[in-house]
# Entry
Amino acid sequence: MEDFLLKSNLSLLNSGSPTYLHPATASFSAIDLSITHPTLYLDFCWQSDSDLHGSDHYPIVITTDTPSPSFSKRTWKLHKADWAAFSHQAALELCTDTICSAEDPIQQFTDVVINIANNSIPKSKPNTKKCNTIWCNEDCKAAIKTRNKALKRVEKHLTQYNIENYRVIRAQTRRVIKTSKRDSWRTYVSKINSRTSIK
# Structure
């Protein structure tokens, strides 16, 4: 792998932290690799999550200081538009002479129309809501907490008993979460009727 990276002129983001816990021996290794182009190497910070989240692989968290684009687009509220103001401003600003004399008439026309729309048509607020994990009840939280404690014991004291104990607790936690998800879905579906909003 090292030869491949050198020949391909690629960089490895991994810090050396383990990314995998062998379920049978509880041995740690870093088998999950994050590879990038050298020009991007300094733009990212690599680390593995301390919680396995019930898996054999530690989640890899790659962060950057570069602000990420907003995925919630604001939309025009056309039903609340002031069309009289829109028409009046359009009649004043969308002059043939002004548009045609511009260096880029199409861009000029677009900019003017968008500016008029911004002044007379309101937009929706950006969606900043976070998804609530409604199935994660107190039983789930308690099971996850117990699982994390068992994992910490394995990391500190690598004994066969701690390994087996962790595997049992992890399986129990998976069952608790699966049951909670199923019950939550059934409860949600049971509340849907002919009067339920399409949203």
Q: What stands out?
A: The mean pLDDT is 88. Strands lie at 11-12, 20-21, 28-29, 35-36, 44-48, 60-64. The chain has three domains: 1-69, 78-120, 133-199. The longest strand covers residues 44-48.
